[in-house]
Amino acid sequence: MRAIFLDIDGVLNSSKTANPRDLPYIVDRRLLCTFRKLAARTRAKVVLFRIGATTPPACSAPIPYADVVPDLPMRSRGDEIRAWLKKHSDVNRYAVIDDDDDQLDDLPAKPSRFLTQHY
Fold first, then answer.
1. In what order do the strands lie in the sheet with 2-6?
2. How many other CB atoms sit within 10 Å of the CB of residue 91?
3. 79 near 103, Cβ under 8 Å?
4. Threshold 0.70, pTM exceeds
5. d(CA 46, CA 67)
């Protein structure tokens, strides 16, 4: 199985994303469309990172996902990914799409990592 670990804030939006209603987590529909194509093309299970106390986060657009990483307060995203992978031994390839490199260097099997930046 393939998995994509997805951070929403900073990946599916940017400083140029319109937010007229001042929602806490806004999704850029253009970026979401691109992500949906990527997920469909790779046939990967989408696994979201938690944002605060809400999972899935209350967003302006529905985000396709299959699961959420475990909630590990005060731990790194790398730890959350390792905990999820431990329960899903059938994953043979995975990618991390995030705007923060939060202790991802020592993840097992050297995943594909895509670090985004706000623009």
1. 67-68, 45-48, 2-6, 93-98, 112-115
2. 18
3. yes
4. yes
5. 7
